[in-house]
Every structure is written in C-alpha cells, then in structure tokens.
C-alpha cells in the first residue's frame, strides 16, 4: 500500500519527527503535530487552545493545546497524525490521502507536553504544558 506520493521531499520530515521522539529521554512525554498560522521557534512555550463551536472560536480555553497525537513511535502513527490534520498537511508532507477537510495553518510544528487528553476531533490530543520541539 503506497502511502507517500512519488518524489516525496518531506519523508525526511517524518523521519525527523520519529528521531526527535526516539532520542528523547523523557519517557512520560506526549507528542503531537499542530497546524498553525503563526511562526514558532524551537523551545517556545505555547498557550492553550480555545474551544470552537460550529466553526466559531469561543472565549473558553482548553486545558492545553490542540494537536494531532502521535500514538507510538512508527512511521504509520506519524502519517496517521498528518492525515488527521487534513488536506493541507498531507500535501505539505507528501502523504497520499483522500481527505477534504483541513485545519487552518500552513506552518507545522511538533509539540511536546507532560500529559494529554483526547480532544473532540478524530486523532486530536490536547497536550498540557506544550513546548515546540521542532519546526517542520
């Protein structure tokens, strides 16, 4: 089953994600990929995300930042997170998928935190105490 587009230039980004997680000594960390309209830097601490209702942002904060969680240290898990981010992320990373939705943001970052809970969306993890560990 082909999951990457021919001539994929971003496969190294998927391997980069795996390498970062694999080389982290923090065995209690949670990781996720986030699409964002803002530019971030490695080491940057991020604030909480907000609750959205029917496509509208509310003033209610989540208890962490919204990401697509990486469940285990495999290429398949990273690709699943990318697919859950939607069309734009799949195009950026060169992942073949039949998805039509897309989270807003052309910038992608790898987030690390000390705990996570399931969000409302498929594959979503709300990560507490989020820090940017890679700009993708």
What does the main sheet amount to?
6 strands, antiparallel
What is the CA–CA distance across the termini? Answer: 25 Å
Strand order of the largest sheet: 6-7-4-1-5-8
Helix/strand class = alpha+beta
Q: How would you describe what is shown here?
A:
By secondary structure, the chain is of the alpha+beta class. The chain has three helices and eight strands. The strands form two sheets. A six-stranded antiparallel β-sheet has the order 6-7-4-1-5-8. A hairpin with a 5-residue loop joins β6 (115-118) and β7. The longest helix is centred in the N-terminal third of the chain and has 12 residues, at 11-22. The model is unreliable at 1-6 (pLDDT under 50).
Topology:
Blueprint: H1 11-22, E1 30-36, E2 50-53, E3 56-61, E4 65-69, H2 75-85, H3 87-93, E5 107-113, E6 115-118, E7 124-128, E8 131-135
Antiparallel strand pairs: 1-4, 1-5, 2-3, 4-7, 5-8, 6-7
Can you describe this structure in just a few lines?
The protein is an alpha+beta fold and 136 residues long. The protein has helices at 11-22, 75-85, 87-93; strands at residues 30-36, 50-53, 56-61, 65-69, 107-113, 115-118, 124-128, 131-135.
Which terms summarize this structure?
two-stranded antiparallel sheet; 8 strands; alpha+beta; 136 residues
